[in-house]
C-alpha cells in the first residue's frame, strides 16, 4: 500500500474475500439488536461502513442504496449501514431521507476496527462495503471514500453473480 492509499483510506481492509465475516451485535435506530448471525442461512448481507449521517457523500450513498433497495431485496440480500453515529442520529437520518434499510450504531468503532476499515487522512472513518453471502463468507470488498454511489452498483453486480 502506498502513502497516498494510506492517506486516502484506499488501502485494503483486514477482512478479505473468502474470509468468514466477523460477527457483530449492534443496535439499530430503534435500539433493537442486529446480529450478522441472524441472517446466516437466510439472506446475503451488504454491510456498508460510512463516515457520518447526513453529510453530503454519506447522504448520496444512503440514497443510492435506498433507490436500489428493491433490487437488493430481489437479489435476496439485506442492506445494513454502519457508522459511529448514535441510534437517535440514525433515526433522524433514516426518517429525513426515507431509508428503508437498517442503520446500526457502532459507538467507538469496535466493529469498524474488527473489519479493518481504514480511515481517510487518518481522521475520517473510511467508506467500505462488504458483500457477505448466506453462509457468512465475504464475497466482495469495495473501498472508496470518493465514489460513494459506486458501492451500490458494485454490490448489486456481485449479488447477481451469487444467484
Quick structural gist:
The protein has 163 residues and is an alpha/beta fold. The chain has six helices and seven strands; from the N terminus they run αβββααβαβαββα.
Instruction: List the helices and strands in order.
Output: HEEEHHEHEHEEH
What number of domains? 1
Which structural category do the helix and sheet elements fall into?
Answer: alpha/beta
Q: Counting H and I runs of at least 4 residues, what is the number of helices?
A: 6
How would you name the CATH homologous superfamily?
Answer: Glutaredoxin
CATH architecture classification name? 3-Layer(aba) Sandwich
Biggest beta sheet summary = 7 strands, mixed
Report how far the terminal alpha carbons are from each other. Answer: 33 Å
Outline type:
globular
Radius of gyration: 14 Å
Low-confidence blocks of residues = 1-11
- Main-sheet strand order equals 2-1-5-4-3-6-7
CATH top level label: Alpha Beta
Q: What fraction strand?
A: 15-25%
Q: What is the name of the CATH topology?
A: Glutaredoxin
Counting DSSP E segments of at least 2 residues, the number of strands comes to 7
Average pLDDT rating: 89
Describe this structure in words.
A hairpin with a 5-residue loop joins strand 6 and strand 7. This protein starts with a helix and ends with a helix. It has a 7-stranded mixed sheet with strand order 2-1-5-4-3-6-7. The protein has a single domain, classed as Glutaredoxin (3-Layer(aba) Sandwich), CATH 3.40.30. The chain is of the alpha/beta class and 163 residues long. It is built from 6 helices and 7 strands; from the N terminus they run αβββααβαβαββα. The radius of gyration is 14 Å and the shape is globular.
